[in-house]
Write a structure and sequence with these properties.
Layout: H1 2-48
């Protein structure tokens, strides 16, 4: 009887792991799409403002 319960628990654990993998995959795809859209807007804004407005990248000069 204990072997049957153990088998059922393993099945539910496997189904749960599969569902979590699917959710993580969907979240990764959404994060990639949102990052690409943000990058596109960053490029458009940089072009419209000739690269002067709110740039996150700052040039660092070396003193060596």
């Amino acid at each position: 009887m204990g072997a049957v319960v153990s088998c059922i628990v393993a099945i539910f654990r496997t189904i749960g792991a599969c569902l979590m993998a699917i959710v993580n995959g969907v979240a990764t795809v959404l994060q990639t799409i949102i990052g690409a859209i943000a990058g596109l807007f960053d490029i458009i804004i940089s072009c419209l403002t000739c690269g002067r407005g709110g740039s996150r990248r700052r040039r660092v000069t070396s003193t060596v």
